[in-house]
Design brief:
Distance between the termini: 30 Å
Radius of gyration: 24 Å
Bound molecules: beta-D-galactopyranose
Number of strands: 35
Oligomer: single chain
Largest sheet: 5 strands, antiparallel
Strand order of the largest sheet: 30-28-29-34-33
CATH architecture of the largest domain: 5 Propeller
CATH class of the largest domain: Mainly Beta
């Protein structure tokens, strides 16, 4: 079927009513010519919403399939049916239990649609349970069957996988996210049969998603950094419960600003293709989070690749990603503070630079990296302010000969806006050294300084003792997608 709908990344997605699509940590099933997209909905007592589309671009809201008001029915094994305590406040992620990463499978034997998900009490992430709901139709009202700790284990980020023989698996992060456990489900998919494999023990993997291609299983995961994006990885195996490869890089150092939600197999012009779907969580504002859809490619049987695409069409899947360039802008991340350099407006001419929580919408956190006339140096132009990051050459303001960092017009007197970038390790972390003063950018903490917005200054480069935590003089320059 000719499908020319374009999928755009890095933008808010709306449904056919013009409302924001709420389907994070999601999942898709294909049925009767439609893709059904399930995901987290944290508005107005809703828990899981469902949308459908015939082209992956135009999405009709089919409504909330799991809510605080859903019917509740215990199953034959012991679960907790609690979803809501009436006195509970909305802590910003919606009222009642927090439901994350819902996944739905159709059980061929029973004809039921079975939803597995991550359950937390709505106040913290300490319960670490999974939960189950079922329905007779794909997008009807699901009946809630309660939450539990599988075989007593903690269970946070999760996914499911249905193999060719109909056996299904639930995979979730256990032991405070240190291990990823694989469980085989019972024949009706309603409970856990057996813990069949522990993957990468002690490696703190989250956001698992599994697919199978030509008999090879692939699993993608993220590292464990909350809502902040990190380097995704993939691994492969000949058997789900057998030996898995080591974790290999998937995408760039932020997985193009996304965290895996699921992988969707698609029929494209008679061929099976695989679509990566990730969440672009906004750590500053959950409800501004968006989605990233990218075609996967397989250069070899056991090699998986994902490239950035601003947009693509289904019928030109992997072979014609016309617009693979990122925006040309960057963010500068302080590795020590896990904050992003942002210009902060102050009264008068001066604009201070602080470390801020990542926000995809904040122009203040975006920088254009220009080459200086003298080879080897760069300038950072702030997208919001239009001025350049500079170190003040007078060191009066700060103690111990440190220097102030501010924004100036190019060539401003008494400042230097040229910087040298020096690789500091194999993971893309760099030292940013000021050309005139020779000092380096730092977010070293000062007494009384708010950790949420650490100030940025220049100081002498010092050898960092890793026993003291992360190095406040290390930064990453990350593309804005
Ligand atoms: C992420 C996880 C999300 C959500 C979030 C909460 O690491 O993948 O699903 O649980 O943490 O901080």
């Amino acid at each position: 079927m000719e499908n020319i709908a374009r999928l755009y990344n890095g933008q808010a997605w709306k449904d056919t009513d013009g409302h924001t699509i709420r389907a994070h940590g999601g999942w898709m099933l294909q049925q009767d010519g439609y893709y059904y997209w399930f995901g987290e909905d944290r508005t107005d007592g809703k828990k899981v919403s469902c949308y459908r589309s015939s082209d992956l671009s135009c999405w009709e809201n089919r409504g909330a399939v799991l809510t605080l008001k859903s019917k509740v029915r215990p199953t034959y094994y012991r679960t907790s049916l609690e979803m809501y305590s009436p006195d509970q406040e909305d802590i910003g992620y919606g009222q009642g239990a927090v439901i994350e990463r819902p996944k739905v499978l159709r059980n061929e034997r029973t004809g039921k649609y079975v939803m597995w998900m991550h359950w937390e009490n709505g106040r913290d992430y300490h319960d670490a349970r999974c939960a189950v709901a079922t329905c007779d139709t794909i997008d009807g009202d699901y009946v809630y069957h309660g939450s539990f700790n599988p075989i007593g284990y903690m269970s946070r980020d999760c996914t499911v996988f249905q193999d060719d023989d109909g056996s299904a698996y639930f995979i979730s992060a256990a032991r405070d996210n240190a291990d990823l456990l694989v469980y085989r489900l019972s024949d009706d998919y309603l409970s856990i049969d057996e813990h069949v494999k522990t993957l990468w023990p002690g490696q703190y993997r989250e956001a698992p998603a599994v697919m199978k291609r030509n008999g090879v299983y692939f699993l993608i995961t993220s590292a464990c950094t909350g809502w902040l994006p990190n380097q995704g990885t993939y691994a492969y195996a000949d058997s789900l419960t057998g030996k898995w490869s080591q974790l290999l890089p998937f995408g760039d150092s932020t997985t193009y600003d996304s965290q895996p939600a699921f992988i969707m197999p698609l029929q494209v012009q008679g061929k099976t293709e695989y679509l990566y779907v990730g969440d672009r969580w906004d750590p500053s504002s959950y409800h501004d989070s968006t989605y990233v859809f990218l075609p996967l490619s397989f250069p070899m049987d056991k090699e998986m690749k994902v490239d950035w695409a601003d947009h693509f069409t289904l019928n030109h899947f992997t072979d014609s990603i016309e617009n693979t360039l990122h925006s040309g802008m960057h963010r500068i991340k302080s590795c020590g503070a896990e904050r992003y350099l942002a210009v902060q407006q102050t009264a008068g001419e001066e604009a201070a630079v602080n470390g801020k929580m990542l926000s995809y919408l904040a122009e203040e956190q975006k920088w254009i990296v220009e080459q200086a006339e003298d080879d080897g140096y760069v300038l950072f132009k702030n997208v919001f302010d239009g001025r350049y990051l500079a170190a003040s050459l007078s060191s009066d303001e700060l103690p111990e000969g440190d220097g102030k960092v501010l924004l100036v017009q190019k060539g401003a007197h008494g400042c230097c806006c040229e910087w040298a970038l020096k690789d500091a390790d194999d993971e893309g972390k760099i030292l940013i050294r000021n050309r005139m003063s020779g000092k380096v950018l730092s977010t070293r903490n000062r007494t009384g300084e708010s950790l949420a917005h650490p100030s940025v200054h220049v100081e002498e480069a010092v050898e960092h003792d890793p026993r003291k935590g992360r190095d406040p003089q290390l930064f990453e320059i990350l593309a804005v997608y």
